[in-house]
Write a structure and sequence with these properties.
globular, mainly beta, Tachylectin-2, Chain A, 2 domains, binds beta-D-fructofuranose, Jelly Rolls, 534 residues, six-stranded antiparallel β-sheet, 45% strand
């Protein structure tokens, strides 16, 4: 697909002033056309992950499915490659793999910048926004007033709504915004995620408020009633709670339903900086209570993490996935506030994770979320690849494949493996390398990016990042997606997930399997070259 991008829509004419009036997403005479292929051939540009054509992106927003299209909105600064006045950028996909860029959906206005939030399809027209019989797409987001922030007040964030009657192409803000003003003067009061609570025939909102979340309900998306607070004394609290998500989920292979709260926090993760913890429990229409089995892992200060890598933040799930599909689909921002604004890319900054399916598993030890990549990604596989059966690694094996865009699947023979550790080493001719370790002593995964290439842009970047399996004892199978500047590692069908970015000066061109302290036996190791989506 060779789409021509009209860059002018990303230039946001007129948004220099912080309290500018809304600018319609029109194409102006400052048009510059650039071939998408060229733009996406820049250094470090990921080839099968979403990233904006140019400029700064952070959180995914308003992810919603409607009429054959998956919408991805995102925090976007159209004038710079660092964070600034936030807009909602917009892209759509029919398969969650290939993306088409659309004009900016929401611009800052008199109430402020457009911070993170969600979108829903108002099937019953509870909001009354529909005029043409089509259900409105309604965005619920935070207005962040930079003037209020500068003046030292604490009520500069409030919640607002906007709607679209043409499949998200054009948007109108509700004239009575904000729908939840900040009457309690809560300094960090943001990132509303709304779902339809079908059991109670109402909308439900979860909102981040500093060190906890607040729940609200509504009949029409305009008037909201406060329900309860959650989390002040549970989970990790080393930073701000941001970008929550809240939804019911059936336990895999069971009729049991639980409620899941995803909770991003920055900083405060075990490996440093931003990350996403989660909670599993019951919701009675008013209050969320963590399951007793799960609560024992959650003494204050301790979290259970959705992804133990350093670069999966602010992720939430898609709304309105059709029932016949039934998946809970997730995507996160593949960066970390510790260094996001200084990573060594120029025209663009940061990509999203691959879309993932969240699966709730449970047994007598407790409930956990698994994250799995989705079957749609199989479209990306080429015929170019390598399959090695029954390999014994006693020291080092060179795998004859260019590792720049790969899907790796390996299955360990846990009985015959005697090594203390086995690792995959990606390297280039400059001696830069990224190592993905499987440590068999404590059954942990460790990514070493200390010598991965460009690392000096932030002293918080070079790190050894480790993750534990949690409720399973042995590392058995590992899937890895390697793009130009990211690795996503899924262990034991996604029970442990590690997402991390890296920036080699030149692409890695060698892949080795290594073992130490004895042999590592793999039933199978396969590596498949993947296609670019751009
Ligand atoms: C998370 C976040 C959100 C906020 C947005 C602003 O990365 O800080 O809490 O809405 O980014 O861009």
């Amino acid at each position: 697909m060779r789409l021509i991008i009209v860059l002018s829509v990303f230039l946001c004419i007129g948004c220099k002033s912080e309290n500018k009036k809304e600018v319609p997403p029109e194409i102006t005479d400052q048009e510059t056309t650039v071939e998408e292929k060229e733009l996406y051939a820049e250094d470090h540009r990921n080839q099968f992950h979403f990233s904006p054509p140019v400029n700064w992106m952070n959180d995914p927003n308003g992810m919603v499915y409607f009429d054959g299209e998956y919408h991805l909105f995102y925090q976007y600064h159209p004038e710079s490659n660092v964070w600034g006045p936030m807009h909602w950028g917009h892209a759509i996909s029919t398969d969650l793999v290939h993306w088409e860029h659309l004009p900016i959906a929401l611009y800052p206005d008199d109430l402020g910048y457009i911070f993170s939030g969600s979108a829903v399809i108002d099937w019953k027209n509870t909001s009354g926004f529909s005029k043409n019989g089509n259900p409105p797409m309604v965005a619920i987001f935070t207005h962040h007033d930079p003037k209020g922030e500068k003046s030292g007040s604490n009520n500069f964030q409030s919640q607002s709504i906007a709607y679209s009657l043409d499949k998200g192409r054009t948007w109108k803000k509700y004239e009575a915004n904000p729908v939840i003003p900040n009457s309690q003067n809560i300094k960090d009061f943001r990132d509303p995620k709304v779902i339809w609570d079908k059991d109670r025939n109402q909308w439900l909102m979860v909102l981040a408020a500093g060190d906890h979340v607040k729940f609200y309900s509504s009949k029409n998306l305009k008037k909201w009633t406060y329900l309860s607070d959650f989390g002040r004394d549970l989970g990790a609290h080393g930073g701000l709670w941001e970008c929550p998500d809240f939804f019911p989920m059936k336990v895999e292979n069971s009729a049991v339903e639980k409620w899941v709260l995803l909770q991003s926090i920055n900083p405060g993760t075990p490996n440093g900086g931003s990350g996403t913890q989660y909670f599993i429990g019951e919701f009675d229409g008013k209050e969320f209570t963590v399951d007793p089995d799960f609560a024992k892992y959650l003494r204050r200060g301790k979290g259970v993490w959705l992804d133990q890598g350093r670069d999966n933040y602010a992720g939430v799930t898609w709304s309105d996935i059709p029932e016949e599909d039934g998946r809970r689909l997730f995507m996160g921002w593949m960066s970390n506030w510790d260094y996001a604004q200084v990573v060594p890319t120029e025209k663009w900054r940061s990509a999203m994770t691959l879309p993932r399916q969240l699966i709730l598993v449970g047994d007598n030890i407790g409930y956990r979320l698994r994250s799995r990549t989705i079957k749609e990604l199989e479209e990306l596989r080429t015929d170019d690849g390598i399959v090695l059966d029954n390999i014994i690694i006693s020291d080092s094996i060179n795998v004859d494949i260019d590792p720049s865009m790969l899907e790796i699947n390996l299955n360990l023979d846990t009985e015959n493996t005697k090594a203390t550790a086995c690792w995959i080493e990606l390297s280039n001719d400059l001696g830069e390398k990224l190592d993905i370790y499987m440590n068999f002593g404590d059954q942990s995964i460790m990514i070493d990016r200390t010598k991965s290439g460009k690392t000096a842009f932030s002293d918080k970047f070079p790190s050894r990042i480790s993750g534990l399996l949690g409720i399973e004892k042995l590392i058995r199978e590992v899937t890895i997606y390697l793009d130009h500047s990211s690795s996503e590692v899924f262990v034991n069908r996604g029970l442990c997930t590690m997402t991390n970015v890296h920036f080699p000066t030149r692409p890695y061109n060698t892949l080795k399997l290594k073992s130490i302290g004895g042999i590592t036996v793999m039933n199978v190791f396969s590596a498949t070259k993947l296609k670019s989506i751009w």
